[in-house]
UniProtKB/TrEMBL annotation, chain A:
Keyword entries, A-Z: Ribonucleoprotein, Ribosomal protein
Alphabetized SUPFAM superfamilies for the sequence: L21p-like
Protein name: Large ribosomal subunit protein bL21m
Alphabetized PANTHER family for the sequence: 50S RIBOSOMAL PROTEIN L21, LARGE RIBOSOMAL SUBUNIT PROTEIN BL21M
Short name of one Pfam family: Ribosomal_L21p
Gene Ontology biological-process annotations: translation
Record GO terms (molecular function): RNA binding; structural constituent of ribosome
InterPro entries found in the cross-reference section: bL21-like, bL21-like_sf, Ribosomal_bL21
Family named by the database record: Belongs to the bacterial ribosomal protein bL21 family.
GO cellular component: mitochondrial large ribosomal subunit
From TrEMBL, chain B:
Protein name (database record): Large ribosomal subunit protein mL43
Any one GO molecular function term: structural constituent of ribosome
PANTHER family: 39S RIBOSOMAL PROTEIN L43, LARGE RIBOSOMAL SUBUNIT PROTEIN ML43
Matches recorded under InterPro entries: Ribosomal_mL43, Ribosomal_mL43/mS25/NADH_DH, Thioredoxin-like_sf
Ribosomal protein/NADH dehydrogenase domain span: 37-110
Length: 158, 188
């Protein structure tokens, strides 16, 4: 996990005392922003092969077979990016485990409307119609929370 | 090809009554099973009622279950939801396991999902948190105070290099390298 933007570039170069000082200042400011809950958080989570930008109270519909049932509370662990209004934590590729907590409730599981897949090849006497109804699961994002302080040693929760 | 999509309503992702924020409420409220006691088409339905219905009712105390036997009519399940939707489904000639699956599907969905085509698969009240992107985000704010026209900002550097310019640069490079060679010879 690194701080995004300009800072990530600075880490790869040789580190002068000024840069170290500035980095620490930035990290302290970010930690303070997290503690004070200055603004709304959002995160980019990886879910069933798709990336979703989620924030508190969002609704998602994921398609395809998925075991969680209605009323289940789940944690979305694959967080690619977490951010507030003022800063972003960019994972490479994932933000360290335990730093960001994204929880969701499964609201509804059902089948979509009937989708028609019509295939035809001209002049080849070939025509097929497929009807399918995909399983749809609706999720409510309960909260997106940056729990730890930035730059703390990772707690290996897994 | 089916034209049923022509009259299909489209809609956006919604959940009734902020469902899932704080608490979760099962959206199925009432389910009516209509069946015949003698006909073969209701066989699966009768098996379901004999074997699974009591467990279903026990597991879902918030759902009201009605049984409606009727003579020589096909079996039907009607589910009613908190948002007012009513889903009617024929269970004619379906086996017990099929009926179990369909009823489970009716229990878990919120309203009549199959009646709408979703236009978006996500709903958010806060479409942008760090502010929407504009051509000026992450740009140097120097431009804000510059006096225009300004050669620094107004220069057209988007055109590709012309052939004449390329030739000139090649010529210059050659001349510089020749001069270097000459100087080296002089030093020797």
């Amino acid at each position: 996990m690194v701080l995004g933007g300009i800072l990530s570039r600075l880490f790869s170069q040789d580190v002068s005392p000024n840069v170290v000082k500035e980095t620490k200042e930035v990290i302290n400011t970010c930690n303070k922003l997290i503690e004070d809950r200055v603004s709304r958080n959002f995160a980019i989570v990886h879910l069933l092969g798709k990336q979703w930008r989620v924030t508190d109270g969002d609704l998602l519909v994921v398609e395809g077979h998925w075991p969680p049932n209605i009323g289940d509370q789940i944690r979305l662990d694959k967080v690619l990016l977490a951010a507030t209004k003022d800063f972003s934590l960019i994972g490479r590729p994932l933000v360290q485990p335990g730093l960001v907590n994204v929880t969701a409730t499964v609201i509804s599981k059902g089948l979509s409307h009937t989708k028609t897949h019509f295939k035809k090849k001209r002049r080849k006497q070939y025509m097929k119609i497929h009807f399918q109804r995909l399983p749809q699961t609706m999720l409510r994002i309960n909260n997106v929370e940056i729990t730890n302080r930035i730059n703390e040693a990772p707690k290996n929760v897994y | 090809m089916s034209n049923s999509n022509l009259f299909l309503k489209s809609g956006f992702v919604r959940a009734p009554l902020q469902n899932g924020v704080g608490r979760y409420v099962c959206q199925l409220q009432r389910i009516v099973l209509k069946f015949c006691k003698s006909h073969g088409g209701s066989r699966g339905m009768r098996d379901f009622i004999e074997q699974d219905l009591v467990d279903f009712a026990r597991d879902n105390p918030s759902v009201v279950v009605y049984l409606k036997p009727r003579r020589h009519r096909s079996p039907v399940v009607v589910a009613e939801y908190l948002n007012g939707d009513r889903v009617w489904m024929s269970m004619q000639n379906k086996t017990q396991s099929e009926i179990t699956k369909w009823i489970e599907n009716m229990r878990t969905q919120q309203g009549d999902l199959s009646a709408v085509r979703l236009r978006k698969y996500q709903y958010t009240d806060h479409p942008s948190i760090q502010g929407p992107w504009t051509p000026f985000t992450f740009k140097n704010p120097e431009l804000n105070v510059a006096k225009l026209p300004n050669p620094k900002f107004g220069a057209n550097d988007r055109l590709p290099m012309s052939a004449t310019e390329q030739l000139r640069i090649m010529f210059e490079k050659q001349r510089i390298s020749k001069e270097e060679v000459k100087e080296e010879k002089k030093e020797e």
